[in-house]
Amino acid sequence: MAETTRVSRALLLVGVVLTAQLCACTAYGGDGFSVEFIHRDSVGSPFHDPSLTAYGRVAKALARSYARADAPSAHGVVSEITSTPFEYLMALNVGTPPTRLLAIADTGSDLVWLNCSKKGPHGPGPAFAGDAPSPPPPPGVVFDPSKSKTYSPVGCDSGACRELHETVCVDSKCAYFYGYGGGSTTSGLLSTETFTFADDAPGTRGERTTRVPNVNFGCGTTFVGKFIGDGLVGLGNTNLSLVTQLGAHASLGRRFSYCLVPYSVNVSSVLNLGARATVTEPGAATTPLIPSRVKSYYTIGLLSVKVGNATYAAPQQSPAIVDSGTTLTFLSKALLDPLVKELAGRIKLPKAPPPADLQLPLCYNITGLKEGQIAAKIPDVKLGLGGGAAVTLKALNTFAVVQKDTLCLAIAPSARSSLIGNVAQQNMHVGYDLDKGTVTFAAADCARSYSATVPGPCPRPRTRPSHLRLSV
């Protein structure tokens, strides 16, 4: 956690910036590979909005959290966490020769899909009645399958086609329709392509690449909603997700991990696949995955919350979704209400009202206080998980500044399942092992992990402006 002289410079809310360049530095070896996790509000991101003030970015981040966690499913059989609000992106090189795209990385859904051109003999047209072409506005990149030597549509009788809930046959090809919470939908042809993961940073010599052939993906020609990216990489717990496909094709195993750098640190986060996804840091806590209504979710059992010697148990095992794409953490009222009461009795700071448009339960006035002074006043919160695991949340995992001189608990009430968001996962190495059916958490210096993983001359991310700094 970076030391700064003033809270107004050091703290700024919630999951808004992990500065990164679009070079998507990638490191390789026999132990798998690692790619850069790019935050959507980074000055290097095509989604960066320079017109927003720092507090405007805060409001947008919070609104995305509520929309993603609470949006109802439009179709009932698809991802109930909407993937239109998103936080992280990763670079993909698709086809032969490769086309470089920047896609959403989503742990809450399964399908990998890209915006595709309809030109050429392989280009799929609208597959469902009422579909209309919707190419992404700039700065989106469109993949043209007619220019790739390795593109192939998938047949209707394939196992991959049967994995999808809504498909029809179009000239013996598998046409799909896929929806997200909030009403966003996409459709196109299920296809296969070669995906290449490489260190493509400018000035890098001696590139080492991992090529994975025959990856199933949706070659999408329509999208209804506000999405404006190049595509979406589903990292969920299903057979169609990129994690499962890489495990099968590249002998990497069905596992991945990430380490989310605190927002005040000027390096990128990292996403690991293969053996590098193994969490080996001291104090690692492993909890089993439990069945979920939506198979793609990574759901664990949340048994209790603890502050000091006070432990509050859930009335019954409470399912909690682990999601890097949601900024805030959401808890059921049975756990959140006593947690708020306990923290309020222990934190000796003047109370402050929350912003009128935010449902945050506990806020403080921090005028004139330095970062270290604030952190010293906030007790740890421990999450008791299934299998006897316990995860400690430090101040940077539980509180954030939501407007000038106002510090709020970055945990909100949920009428549905609990959800562990990316603020709670800062400076943690979080590993998902689909073969073992586990999620592992360990405290880590994620900035150092990134520096150790990415070798050679890959440029460091641009300096993050001081008004985008965050965390306590």
TrEMBL record:
Keyword check for Signal, yes or no: yes
Question: What is annotated as the active site?
Answer: D106, D323
Encoding gene, per UniProt annotation = LOC123087977
Q: Name one GO biological process term.
A: proteolysis
* Peptidase A1 domain mapped to chain residues: 88-442
Q: Which UniProt keywords apply?
A: Aspartyl protease, Glycoprotein, Hydrolase, Protease, Signal
Q: Name one Pfam family in it.
A: TAXi_C
Q: Into which family does the record put it?
A: Belongs to the peptidase A1 family.
Q: Which organism is it from?
A: Triticum aestivum (Wheat)
Q: Which SUPFAM superfamilies match?
A: Acid proteases (SSF50630)
Q: Which GO terms describe its cellular component?
A: extracellular region
Q: Which InterPro entries match?
A: Aspartic_peptidase_A1, Aspartic_peptidase_AS, Pepsin-like_plant, PEPTIDASE_A1, Peptidase_aspartic_dom_sf, Plant_Aspart_Prot_A1, TAXi_C, TAXi_N
UniProt-recorded Gene Ontology molecular function terms: aspartic-type endopeptidase activity
Source taxon at top rank:
Eukaryota
Keyword Glycoprotein assigned: yes
N-terminal signal peptide: 1-27
The identity of this protein, by name, is: Peptidase A1 domain-containing protein
Q: Could you tell me which PANTHER family the record lists for this protein?
A: OS07G0603500 PROTEIN-RELATED (PTHR47967), PEPTIDASE A1 DOMAIN-CONTAINING PROTEIN (PTHR47967:SF63)
